[in-house]
Design goal:
CATH architecture: Roll
CATH topology: Thiol Ester Dehydrase, Chain A
Distance between the termini: 26 Å
Strand content: 25-35%
Low-confidence stretches: 165-173
Mean pLDDT: 83
Order of helices and strands: HHHEEHEEEE
CATH class: Alpha Beta
Number of strands: 6
Strand order of the largest sheet: 1-2-4-5-6-3
Length: 173
């Protein structure tokens, strides 16, 4: 942390939120960033942040993720890529999330196949950042490494909608 503070970063630490805007998160444990994903829907589905460069969000395939057609409901896949994309934008260093909230305004999702195995993972990379929007590309794979979906997510930055001191909670939609 800055200023000679040797305390490890913790969830809700205002310094973590401030550092999101600079993209200086290398020493922040994933568990601290994961705490920022604590929305009831994300918890219900079991979403877990497992990587930062690139952002990786994993989802267990359970009864909560199922559709009548197979182990992954399209809406659950959409939620997975939405979260991964917005975490990628929030942690990229391109947006000060203490000053700007992030909201998905467009999602182009290509559902390719039902996954096999016990988990799927979304890997997201920021492709472009403009003055008011960012575009993120996301690939979803199953346990065997097979691509089950791809997405392009457009995120809008909302001025004065950031939530200081909450880690990713104000950023991941």
């Amino acid at each position: 942390m800055s200023g000679g503070d040797d305390r490890p970063p913790v969830a809700g630490d205002p310094q973590v939120a401030a550092r999101l805007g600079r993209g200086t998160l290398e020493d922040v444990p994933l568990e601290v960033l994961q705490a920022g994903l604590r929305l009831p829907l994300h918890d219900h589905l079991g979403l877990e942040l497992t990587g930062l460069r690139p952002v990786v969000v994993e989802l267990p395939l359970t009864e909560r993720s199922r559709s009548l057609a197979g182990p992954l409901h399209g809406g659950v896949l959409a939620t997975l890529v939405d979260v991964a994309a917005n975490v990628a934008v929030a942690t990229s260093g391109a947006v000060d999330v203490t000053r700007y909230g992030l909201v998905t305004v467009r999602a182009e999702i290509d559902f390719r196949a039902q996954p096999s195995g016990t988990r799927v993972r979304a890997e997201a990379r920021v492709a472009e950042v403009g003055r008011r929007t960012a575009r993120t590309e996301c690939v979803v794979t199953d346990d065997g490494g097979r691509t089950v979906g791809r997405a392009a997510i457009t995120t809008r930055m909302l001025p004065r909608a950031g939530v200081p001191g909450t880690g990713l909670a104000g950023a991941a939609c």
